[in-house]
Amino acid sequence: MSGRKPLSSRNPLFYKVSVGLHRLKRRCSWYFNGESYSSGLTDDIFPYVVVSHRSLLLRKLAGTDIDLQKNKVKSLRIAVSFIDGLLVAPGEIFSFWKLVGNPLSRRGFPAGLQLSFGKLTSMAGGGLCQLTNLLYWMVLHTPLLVTERHRHSTDPFPDYKRTVPFGTGATVFYNYIDLAFRNNSSMDFQLKIWLDDKYLCGEIRCREALPIAYSIVEKNHRFVRENGIVYRENELWRIETDQESSRVLSEKLLFKNHVEVLYDVSKIPDIEVEENME
Description:
With 278 residues, the protein is α+β, with helices and mostly antiparallel strands.
């Protein structure tokens, strides 16, 4: 591999045409692939909380405009209005972009931070990946099957009050870089998402208690230098446990991460970098 960027990322016109074609292809898929997509919101709150999580709304990100983070919060509130209370019935697919739609400024989405080709930029709806990160992390703790998920190819920022393992994010870009999952079970699930003064909060609920508990474990986390470049690595495993007996039923490797670190690790306390001598 030469490592050269595709032509579409080097020429604005080709990029615009490429994006348009990808978006058209995705719209056609939504309406002609014969799948059933979840869309119904309900005010009835399901009684059993399968998993809950929350993430800090405003983070310390060196060299970034705090106003862009505040704009992100505004975009999150709009996007949440399309998802909070969503029923995902058996056989249905959740598609983030099919629900939220195009995050355009004329729809009220202000400019927020967006990571594009490894660089920070600002665009309408920037920062919505915080919501897809939250959703993806919760879905991993359920029997729901992830059918589409994309992740950043770099580690752009040092950890700040991280509560989940590195590399569990789900980046999105309207509409062809999506987060999607299918309900292959026989049970109805419900998404509850809201914002308070400090956090983006979420729950996945069910009408009945699940017989299996799901947990995510990180293994072999490290920073390693290869040919002068620092990379961050880890493995994410999912453990399934019988709720009644507490017996471990399975332990499965979900994925491995190996991405370039974009910040200066020498300025971060407690980070040790291993040297890859191979």
